[in-house]
Amino acid sequence: MNANTTDNHERLLRIDEVVRRVAVSESTIRRRMEDDKSGFPAPVRVGARIIAWRASEIDAYLRNLPTRTKEI
Questions:
Q1: Three-state secondary structure readout of 6-70
Q2: CB-based contact 54:41 (threshold 8 Å)
Q3: Which end of the chain has the smaller Cβ count within 10 Å, N or C?
Q4: Tell me: the pLDDT tens digits for 12-63?
Q5: Residue 53 class from Cβ within 10 Å (0-12 exposed, 13-18 middle, 19+ buried)?
Q6: Which strands sit side by side in the sheet containing 12-13, from one edge to the other?
Q7: Could you tell me the end-to-end alpha-carbon distance of the chain, in angstroms, rounded to an integer?
Q8: How far apart are CA 60 and CA 25, in angstroms?
């Protein structure tokens, strides 16, 4: 099985891809992982030292973020 897919062919994203999609630093992602209130998706262990995130869960997280409006 490829490290970028699960049994049901869900695409998995490594940390560098998650950083690009979410547009925050790796340390911010790690902080959000530890904060239960952040709603950040839990990673999936794909190896002894490798974690990844389901692309669908990252996409859902981004869709559900509150939109920020610029106040003038």
A1: CCCCCEEECHHHHHHHHCCCHHHHHHHHHCHHHCCCCCEEEECCEEEEEHHHHHHHHHHCCCCCC
A2: yes
A3: C
A4: 999 999 999 999 999 999 999 999 888 999 999 999 999 999 999 999 999 9
A5: buried
A6: 12-13, 50-54, 44-47
A7: 52
A8: 19
pTM of this structure:
0.78
**Residue with tokens 């952040």, as numbered in its chain:** 38
Taking only Cα atoms into account, the Rg of the chain, rounded to an integer number of angstroms, comes to: 13
List the Cα angle 49/45/23 in 5-degree steps: 90
Can you read off the two tokens belonging to residue 28? 């911010």
Residue reference for tokens 């560098």: 16
